[in-house]
Amino acid sequence: MSEVTQRAGVTTHGVASGNPAASSTAQLRCIEENCRATYSLDETLVVCPRCGGLLDVELNDIAEPARRVLPGVWAERRTSLAPADTSGVWRFREMLPISASAPLVTLREGNTPLYEAPRAAEYTHIDQMWLKHQGANPTGSFKDTGMTVAVTHAVRQGARTLACASTGNTAASLAAYAARAGVRAVILVPHGQVSSAKLAQSLDYGASVLELEGNFDSAMRVVRELAEDGSLYLVNSVNPLRVEGQKTVAIELMEQVGWNVPDWIVVPGGNLGNISALGKGFIEMRRWGLLDRLPQFAVIQAEGASPFAHLLAERKRDANAALDPVADPRTLATAIRIGAPVSWKRGLRVLAETGGASIAVSEREIADAKAILGRDGIGCEPASATTIAGIRKLAANGRIRKSETVVAVLTGHLLKDVDYTAKYHSGRLTEPEGAAPGGEPKPIKGAFANPPARVPATRAGILDYLRRSKQDSSVE
Ligand SMILES: *Cc1c(COP(=O)(O)O)cnc(C)c1O
Fold this sequence. Notes:
This protein is an alpha/beta fold and 476 residues long.
């Protein structure tokens, strides 16, 4: 520790004294096998300046005896009222690369519930299924768990303008955290392809919202150019600090299941930051001796935006196949309407290490899965429901066994896309534009549609309606 930081009573890159240990010498390392260059975290790099590859944070492993007491330390912090302890991300700070003792940009993210879901379990033909609901984060999606770390680091390094390309949720999250930090957020969204609720959040949090002519992938391309020349600091999940925050979801989940590793963790796949982060979290916990095995992962995509599912199928024929981007991705699950996922190499690395699968599901399967979750009293946005559709499919083809334990990660809140839900229940949901070239948009007939009834405003009228209608409880 330098004299300066000692005098101030804090470390800038370690963990405050009093904790079991500090990962004080974490560094960045390029993931490309033929590069592997390392950099200091202080450089606020987002990609490798030498080869353009993705960067990983490499933690300095803490010593064995200190590692083993971590679950106890983390559990104890749940009774603390200190900001760093009430955050469900910073509570796990021994596994984060930057200090929690200097000021944090936090909205008490994380701390999300793990639910049982009997109806959804029955629908998927799985005995034991849990839902980790990341929609319960401050801005309604899992993006907050990564944003608190990325924005905290950026602000400490002196960044004044933070930017992202987004299908809506990263934008809402960045906008909120930038507002907390008092710095500018610049948000690039594809015009007309973001739900109005998500856009409204970013506007309310005071971000500069730029609606681009083009899709998410083109917004991503432009924002990376701006980041490379130093005009903006990029906080998309390509940013390795985002991955660090998001990986704490894996730790919180393990606490909630009493440190019994589930057989499967199932996530939707868009840009593939989430699978990269959860995988990293599990792999590091295993390396630190906190787990005795790893779960398998399943990454579920929508059929019209499924380059990663295709890649996995392709790899069975050609072990060196690279991702083939989808030029014009289409799905009503706008959070995963991504044709060229930035983190595909990280995602692939996780599946190679843990085993697992990636498959695609149809719009109809997503819509019905979402409605089934609703019947358990649990809402989510369309992208999140791919998990349930995917589990049902993987169970049907025997890849997931009925007796295996499964956790579906619900990534976003129901109210993120009310329009979709209202249309589903009133029979007005249609396949995404362009899916069936020419002709009328094809309706999606929901198996669990629950349209409102129009009844006379009289006692007799209402009683008559209740007698005639019966609540349908079947899920098949
Ligand atoms: C961002 C997001 C996804 C996709 O996550 P990736 O990390 O891009 O794969 C899925 N669902 C929701 C609700 C999201 O906000």
